[in-house]
Amino acid sequence: MTQLTVPASGRRILATRCRAVCEAPAFGFAVLLVILVNAVLLGVDTYSGVAAEYHEVLKRSEDLCVTAFTVEMVLRLGAHADRPKAFFRDPWNVFDLVVVSSAFVPFLRENTTLLRLLRLARVLRTARFMPQLRILLVAVGRSLPGTVSFLFVGALILYVYAMVGWICFAARDPEHYGSLGRAGLTLFLLMMMDGLGEAVHAGLAISPLSILFYASFVLLASFVLVNVLIGVVLNALEEARELERTEAREAEEAQAGPPPPVEADHGLRQRIVAMRDALDELEARLDHEAPGARPPLTGARS
């Protein structure tokens, strides 16, 4: 059985042409415009009266957006025809492929809620055409491990102070500290500086020592922990920027192709020529001194 395969030269030509289209500024602008139109259509659907009156127009507009996204994805796949593995190594390509191809899954098209969520996910594709937004999204993803640690430490501090507040203020202020849940909610609002002045005055009416409770909590929760979170986010943002620069350099190197072969050193060539001349001279001298006594060296050396 004969297996049909696309020649490597044909794949390279296809990839070159599709890549030229995908890298054109007009192509990126057109895709971004379609994404924004899709976002507007999604917002119009929230108005039941308008959606009912212009149902056919909105439906055809949605179909046009899906068609445009499909053509875009086909061109991007064609741009990686010579190196298909590189397409799937880019998380943004995988995300775009999943979002666009999900419009053709029968179960998803029939489920209104999932379909709207997938249409909403298309709006996130604007990050591909906005480098700064893409860096921010990558930074948010890379900051999640540090954020989880921050949430654990914050929950621990909140629990300890909620228990202390329940022990000290439950009898005199049951509205805010009557249970662990009430105390935790009160302190969570105080962490956001919401009603801090009222809480401090109410605490001073109970005991002057309450100022130590509120001051230490605000210092730990609203200043130390928040600054730690800012540090985690800034560190992740710097890592995302470095990752973006690395990917840009790799893309430029891949587009430029392999470096040209390095020419041999000119001095080395001169030494090789000098050695050959010395061997020729030595061979001629041996032939002159003892002709016929030994076979010529030309054949052996060549």
Number of separate helices: 17
Query: What sequence of helices (H) and strands (E) makes up the elements?
Result: HHHHHHHHHHHHHHHHH
The gross shape turns out to be flat
> What is the strand tally?
0
Quote the beta fraction.
under 5%
Low-confidence stretches: 297-302
Largest sheet: none
Cα-based radius of gyration, to the nearest Å: 36 Å
Structure description:
The protein is mainly α. Helices cover about 80% and strands about 0% of the residues. It has 17 helices and no strands. Helix 10 packs across helix 15 (about 210-255) and helix 11 (about 145-170) packs antiparallel against helix 15. The two termini are about 50 Å apart.
What's a quick, concise take on this entry?
This protein has 302 residues and is mainly alpha-helical. 81% of the residues lie in helices and 0% in strands.
